[in-house]
Amino acid sequence: MKPLAIFAGATLLVASLAGCSSSTNETPTHKAKASSCLVSYSTDVSGSPVKQLSNDLIEAKVVYGLNVKEVEVPGNFESAEIQSLLFTSLQGGCVYFLSAEDRLNTEVSQFAAKHQFIVALTVGGYSPANQPANVRWVADDLKSGAALAGFATAAKATNGRVLLVIQDVYFNSVELNKAFRSGVSAFNEKADEAVTVTKLNVSDGEALNQRLAKVDGEVALALFADSFIWKKLDLSSRTGAVIGSDLQLGHTLETVDKTVVASVERNYNALVLRVAKDVLDKNFALDPILMDPLALANGYIELRPLDDTVFDGTTTALLEEYKAVLEAQK
User: Fold this and answer.
1) In whole angstroms, what is the distance from residue 311 CA to residue 148 CA?
2) Among 32, 84, 234, 286, whose CB has the most other CB atoms within 10 angstroms?
3) What one-character DSSP code corresponds to residue 95?
């Protein structure tokens, strides 16, 4: 185990959270070494829920005093090796396990079934078979977020064109492409428009800058990529709206270019903290078990605008109607 790696600027984030949450902090009643542990693969997958969960765990540390650690699982590990690693983590103080990868969710659920005085929260994939009462599961629905982004990007297009950029290794990229296009199509049908989509695949920021230099700066842009690409991205010559993903708009101290108007975001914060409180209250087993497949309807995925002026009233109303359609399809 090792301390959880934190995104740039997290030190300031923790300081700000401590200031805003001090009135609600509870006096720790747990053992000093008690920890929440994020179980993830050694190689990070861009666009997975792991980044959001790691950020939320930092807040859980501030609010409840639980230590935060990371359990890295090599991709070639067999099940027995993963179970051994989780047991070592338990011996080291982990009482709250989080994971967000299909296979790791299964391993964490199986481990929790053997240890009734811990709690696990698994995000995404299919709900665990024979889910233990001390495991909470919620769906991850980035596809619905991509569909909303497609609808919104088309609404912001001023010349009938939208450029979709998806990083080559991005989480669920094939499905995101389909969902985004369905969102554009839904806008076209609703608004009687004919917005077209051009897609670019990229692996690094410099290559993306070179390709964007050849595209009309007025074209609205949607970009699903990790922070390494965003940090190198030059949007200074663009005037068209830009919609991103996993930028943590409103929750970090990092600034974004003035052309960035919205971002597809996961929103597990309240749930992560609620489960942390369950751990401290020794509320291990739930009846009924928490099994929530409605990520979009319950706010775990959202299209978060930079501010209230991003979309006009008509567009906002159309987005709400489309969101209702997506929810009804689940």
Assistant:
1) 13
2) 286
3) E
